[in-house]
Design goal:
The chain is built from two helices and eleven strands. It has helices spanning about 1-35, 115-125; strands at about 40-50, 55-65, 70-75, 85-90, 90-95, 100-105, 130-135, 140-145, 150-155, 160-170, 175-185. The chain is globular, with a radius of gyration of 19 Å.
């Protein structure tokens, strides 16, 4: 019995530093992404799935260009609304279609598929890193922005986002899931 305990203890002592290395690697990969976004623009394409409280889902393919003045989000799919653009800036969002611009309401604490990608970029630049770890070849970072939403960001081996999950700070329910098809810094 004592030998099993000692063997388990020795295994734990060997694995503990490896777990810390994964945390350091994940945080370093995220901090490198954060530094490269400082003052740069980011262009991304993602499949964005919104989960309503009643269990329904809506999926969109969006392209976002994010810079110092906010972001422009264009809908690529579904085809019915393809070409609709939204301009998301600090505290506001406007929807544009064929030259007509309409106020889309406050983007402050509200989260929608249109505001998810710009809010993720803002979080990468300024949110607090609560946890960081590695899973397989991915670095995973748990971000805490200043609002009621938590973000789990997964980075691929190249250090670029693979996916992001927005969850409610109150009940942990998934609100929005973004799966990146492309991400480039300019």
């Amino acid at each position: 019995m004592r030998r099993r305990f000692l063997a388990a203890l020795m295994t734990l002592l060997v694995l503990l530093p490896l777990a810390a290395c994964g945390k350091d690697e994940a945080k370093a990969a995220f901090e490198e992404l954060r530094a490269s976004m400082d003052g740069a623009s980011a262009e991304m394409t993602a499949k964005v799935t919104a989960f309503a409280a009643d269990g329904t889902q809506a999926e969109y393919t969006l392209r976002c260009v994010f810079g110092a003045q906010g972001g422009e989000v264009e809908t690529l799919a579904p085809e019915l609304i393809a070409g609709v653009k939204a301009h998301v800036g600090p505290g506001s969002a406007q929807i544009e279609y064929e030259g007509l611009m309409l106020n889309a309401g406050e983007a402050g604490n509200g989260l929608s598929p249109v505001t998810a990608l710009p809010r993720l970029c803002e979080a990468i630049c300024s949110a607090h890193v609560e946890l960081a770890w590695t899973e397989g070849g991915e670095s995973v970072v748990s971000l805490v922005p200043e609002d009621e939403t938590a973000i789990t960001l997964r980075l691929g081996e190249d250090g670029l986002p693979v996916s992001a999950e927005f969850t409610s700070g109150g009940d942990g329910r998934t609100l929005i899931l973004c799966r990146f098809e492309g991400f480039a810094l300019g």
